[in-house]
Amino acid sequence: MSEFFWPVIIGSFIAFALKFAGFLVPKSILEHDLFKKIIPILPIGMLSGLIAVQVLADKQNIVFDGRIIGVAVGIVALLFRAPFIVVVILAAAVTAIGRANGLWI
Amino acid sequence: MQPDRQPISSRRKILRDAIGIGLGTATYGLSFGALGIATGLTLIETQLLSLIMFTGASQFALVGTLAAGGGALSAVSAASLLGVRNLAYAVRNNTLLKPHGIQRLLGAQLTIDESTAMGLGHEKGIDGQAGGRYAFWATGISVFIFWNIATFLGAVAISQVGDPKSLGLDAAIAAGFIALLWPQITNKFTMLVAVTSAAVAIIAISIVQPGLPILLAGFVAAVMAWIKAMKNHE
Predict the structure, then answer these.
(1) Is A61 helix (H, G, I), strand (E, B) or coil?
(2) What is the dihedral of CA B168, B170, B173, B176, to 10 degrees?
(3) Cα–Cα dist B145/B208, whole Å
(4) Are B201 and A89 inside 8 Å of each other by CB?
(5) Does B202 sit within 8 Å of A45, measured CB to CB?
(6) Of B80, B176, B184, the CB nearest to A84
(7) Which of B:29-48 have CB within 8 Å of A?
(8) Which residue of A has its CA nearest to B176?
(9) Which residues in chain B (173-202) have CB-CB distances under 8 A to chain A?
(10) Chain centroid to CA A94: how far?
(11) What whole-number distance in Å separates Cα of residue B154 and Cα of residue B27?
């Protein structure tokens, strides 16, 4: 058991509860206008925030390091419609090779 | 009701597609397994996410947020918000499957992007709703099996490696999330939401506790969506 045990268990429970609720809840409630307009936008905000933190944060400091280079290459790959696995591997490879050669940290 | 004209050949094709989709998700599964271990989860915790949470984007968000030092609250919120779409899928799948008893639990657990899309896609096929149900179950079971095997293999493989940063895994995770976000940016408004939320998170990094920047970004997105909904009402 790691320090992350509870988020794993609670997150898993909520994920299943959401799925199961869909089999129980009447359709009309979920078709409320505000619900339909806000819920799809929320993950876009949280994912964008998460990406910003993943690329730039080191605890509470902003750090520019090899992550930016790898991510930039990943974005170029996305612009060329590369599949997920190619984007991820390219980002990792560029960052790792630069680190191994002392180009960036 | 349409008669089952060529149910066998049609089902064979559905099954082939279902296995193909399962194999496709396995590539994500490998990276998820690796990410879980690199973040500091145990093998069992990583596997539990693939077994019980079983919805890729949420799993990545949970572990990715924990890895970024975001804390439990942000991690669970991010994962749960991404899981909300499964609620809408489940409503739809309920009308397709009309499940009873244990089928309802299994149907809920296997409700994900892939199984829902396949079920809805084949509902209009020559098999009608029966074909849709078959496609749902075949895809759900296939993805469940391949996803979990891949998670295990990825987790075991990364355990053999020393520092995940030397492999560029931190950049890979961020790039992976950009790839997940990419198809959701469909117009000017979603682009504006993404840029604004990211900017708020960046400003917040050095000001507030780790984890809060991600929640703030979500809050900003919700406010923007709310303002837009209000404007459209006028």
Answers:
(1) strand
(2) -60
(3) 41
(4) no
(5) no
(6) B176
(7) 31, 39-42, 45, 48
(8) A88
(9) 173-182, 184-185, 190, 193-195, 197-202
(10) 20
(11) 9
What are the beta bridge partners of residue A62? A57
Query: B144 to each of A5, A30, B29, B85, B150, how far by Cα in Å?
Result: 22, 27, 10, 18, 10
Question: At residue B97, what is the residue type?
Answer: L
Q: pLDDT digits over B223-232, tens only?
A: 999 999 988 8
Q: What count of residues does chain B have?
A: 234
- Which percentage of chain B shows pLDDT scores above 70? 95
Distance from CA of B58 to the nearest CA of A (A): 8
A 24-53 residues inside an 8 A Cβ radius of B: 25, 27, 30, 33-34, 37-53
Q: Is A21 on the interface with B (CB under 8 A)?
A: yes
Residues of chain A short of pLDDT 70, as ranges, are 27, 29-30
Those residues whose C-beta lies under 8 Å from the C-beta of residue A93, and which sit 6 or more positions away, are B168
pLDDT of residue A30: 65
Alpha helices in chain B (DSSP H): 7-39, 43-48, 56-67, 71-97, 102-109, 113-123, 128-159, 169-181, 188-205, 212-233
Whole-structure pTM value? 0.77
| Nearest CA distance, A77 vs chain B (angstrom) | 10
State the best of A3, A4, A65 to mutate against chain B, taking most chain B CBs within 10 Å.
A4
Q: Which DSSP letter does residue B50 get?
A: I
Adjacent-strand bridge partners of A58: A61
CA distances from B225 to A45, B188, B204, B205, B232 (A): 10, 13, 21, 23, 11
